[in-house]
Amino acid sequence: MSIIDFISMALFIATIIYISLKQIETFKIKLLVSIPFIILIFLFSRSFVLLPIYIYSLIAATYLYTIFFYIPFAIDFILILISSLDHMATLKLLLISISVPMLMSMFLDKNMKKYGLENEEHKGKDIKRESYRDYFQIGTGIITILVFVFFGHFGKVIILYSVLLIYLFGNILYLHKDYRITNLVYRMERENTKLGLGSMYLASGFLLVMGFIGSIKVLYVAAFLIMVGDSLATIIGMRLRTPRLVYNNKKSVGGFLAMCIPSFIFGVFFIFYVPAIFYSVFATFAESISNKIADDNITIPVSIIIAHFILAVA
Fold first, then answer.
1. CA angle centred on 117, ends 115 and 121, rounded to 5°
2. How far is it, in rounded angstroms, from Cα 144 to Cα 139?
3. pTM for this entry
4. Where are the alpha helices (DSSP H) in 23-69?
5. What is the C-alpha to C-alpha distance for residues 186 and 299, in angstroms, rounded to an integer?
6. Number of other residues whose CB lies within 10 A of the CB of residue 170
7. Strand, helix or coil at 187?
8. pLDDT tens for residues 184-213?
9. pLDDT(115) > 70
10. What does the alpha-carbon distance between residue 133 and residue 144 come to, in Å, rounded to a whole number?
11. Which pLDDT value is given to residue 236?
12. Which residues contact 43 (CB under 8 A, 6 or more apart)?
């Protein structure tokens, strides 16, 4: 065992012991659900390096929107930086070790689930504010695609650190509502929802997609679906009166087609027709049932990963 492995193992075990003794009620369910993920990450990496990254990502996500966020985030950031610079772990496993605990915490934490439900309930109610959000998200999608176009696989590293900065600044702005920039950002937030919550879900979901999908061309399509297609569904769904979906009366046929058709057209420029329509339909269906399951920034990325595995074995 190398010295780095030994230090990582010691840090991981010490942290587990500490939160088990001091904050077991907060982390009990999350730790239990994390066990299979931690085992798989260790088995695939054959190293302890990623385990403290996993646990500190979980702790940081748990304490999002509080002053207790900064210390675990700082430790996590340093560990991620060391790991990514020294190539001690594959980038795919590193991305999974960061995104899985982030999404898990958001999904399992009672407060975060409440914030997510409030966010979904106010979706589309304020057309002007929703438009700001969607245009910004479309712009983010275009920038993300361009990052891959110009930097290729290194674009994953750029996006990783961009996501970490989103988490940091989201927490800073939430705790300092008197900042001028905070008021500007709040103009793009839905009423009575946490600052940047949707962006953080989206960012974590896209990290998860990058962790499971290696093809840059498929990542073009994934970025379009998650950031552009989803926004088009909201924009058209708000503005056009079209029939409601049979299986979900809160979603419209117009919104479904507004996401599915442009995503398919974009996809055929980079991948074959069949995969393009498969990804588009699968992800659009996931978006159309998101209010019944989870935030669409979780359901869409997960659906893309599932579709990718189905196509890989077909």
1. 115
2. 9
3. 0.87
4. 24-45, 50-62
5. 25
6. 21
7. coil
8. 665 656 555 665 667 778 889 999 999 999
9. no
10. 16
11. 87
12. none
